[in-house]
Design a protein that fits this description.
It is built from 17 helices and no strands. The chain is mostly helical and 405 residues long. The chain has one domain.
Length: 405
């Protein structure tokens, strides 16, 4: 069984690498395909299949920052990295940006492993305390974000416009098919078009011998944000990333470390939540729940061990892949790369979500371009996810339905 676990772990890392580098292909798609072909898994140990799921889910949280930072092609889990990560790329520090996300991922793995016994005991208590007041916490954070922006009226307008766009989109289409075209338009297409129109040139990328950053502060921020995202349905890593960054006043490097940690810790926490309270919080956990009713403590130990090994291998592969890709960038025209990325994203949106998805992407792109022209922080566009979350947890869904339908 040991050999099967190792082979399935390596297969999971390989597929995590592919899904991470290909924008628009989410691990959940692979899990759904795997479930539909589950007859191929008959005869293999259950633990090997669990190792495959864990390796794919965890490795993807490392690799998916590469296209987000280098090409500005985000997905739901790495969308916020477009902001500081792309800025560092334009300063010749793209490698450093990706390295910081890797630091965050490894940091939260260490923190999660150390705190595992306490997490198993306290998770149900934390969930019961936070859930009833979550909308108040989010409202407070949004108010603080708007207040600290240089142009408060423009910031509030962008947040509300993005939030209404999110509420209407997420309630008109299944969330899985709405998220990709909307976030691609808001953050990806708008960023790429701006780079093309400005005829942006990528400077030579520096490969520093040592990357500096407040590793502990960034990792703790990411760990706590991942904990919130893993505990509460409807609250994703993007929302919790903004909450934690505002609470801890994270600077750019710390923010990237935190972002690298959020997705990895969130994935770990969804496994722990499934073990502790039996709740399904991710596609990876859903896949495991289809093959085993409850996790035993030994299963949880296997998940942690596989997660640690996957994180170490994925960190090395992410850094080496980023170095190769950034070195290749100096031999090509960045404008041509952006045009190709724009074409690929539009084609992917058309194939995966059809004409409706193209319309959603176009609407998101115009909001993104408006935000850039107003010189407002693009984090306010996360109103797309935050406002619907506030509405959901405050119980105001019926009122908003009457307003917009």
């Amino acid at each position: 069984m040991f050999v099967e676990i190792v082979l399935f772990t390596l297969l999971g890392i390989l597929l995590g690498f592919i899904t991470g580098l290909a924008p628009g292909i989410h691990p959940n798609t692979v899990f759904a395909m795997t479930f539909s072909l589950s007859f191929l898994l008959v005869g293999f140990p259950v633990q090997a299949v669990i190792a495959f799921v864990v390796a794919l889910a965890i490795s993807n949280t490392f690799f998916d920052f590469i296209p987000s930072i280098i090409f500005g092609a985000p997905d739901e889990d790495s969308v916020l990295s477009v902001l500081p990560g792309h800025r560092m790329l334009l300063d010749g520090r793209g490698y450093e940006a990706i390295f910081l996300t890797v630091m965050g991922g490894l940091g939260v793995v260490l923190l999660t492993t150390i705190s595992l016994p306490a997490l198993i005991f306290f998770l149900p208590v934390i969930q019961a305390v936070i859930r009833p007041v979550l909308h108040i916490i989010l409202l407070s954070i949004v108010a603080w974000m708007v207040w600290t922006d240089k142009s408060r009226l423009a910031a509030a307008s962008v947040f509300l416009l993005s939030g209404i766009f999110g509420f209407m989109t997420l309630n008109s289409f299944p969330s899985d098919s709405a998220m990709f075209p909307a976030l691609t338009g808001l953050f990806g297409l708008s960023t790429i078009l701006t780079s093309i129109m400005a005829k942006t040139k990528i400077p030579p990328q520096k490969i520093p011998g040592k990357v500096h950053g407040d590793w502990l502060k960034g990792s703790v921020t990411g760990w706590l944000a991942g904990l919130l995202a893993g505990l509460l349905p409807g609250l994703g890593s993007s929302q919790t990333g903004i909450i934690s960054a505002q609470v801890f006043k994270a600077r750019m490097k710390e923010f990237l470390i935190a972002l690298g940690g959020i997705n990895t810790s969130n994935m770990f926490f969804t496994f722990i939540v499934f073990y502790a309270i039996g709740k399904t919080r991710s596609g990876a956990v859903w896949m495991i729940s289809q093959i085993i009713e409850r996790l035993t403590f030994l299963d949880l130990c296997l998940i942690v061990i596989v997660g640690i090994m996957t994180s170490l291998l994925s960190a090395i592969l992410t850094i080496k892949t980023a170095k190769v890709m950034l070195n290749k960038m100096k031999h090509v025209s960045y404008t041509k790369v952006m045009l190709l990325t724009l074409f690929v994203l539009v084609v992917l949106v058309a194939i995966l979500t059809g004409p409706a998805g193209l319309l959603v992407s176009a609407a998101g792109m115009f909001i993104g371009l408006l935000t850039i022209s107003l010189n407002v922080k693009r984090t306010h566009m996360m109103g797309f996810l935050i406002l619907p979350t506030i509405i959901y947890f405050s119980g105001l869904n019926p009122l908003f339905f009457r307003l917009f339908w």
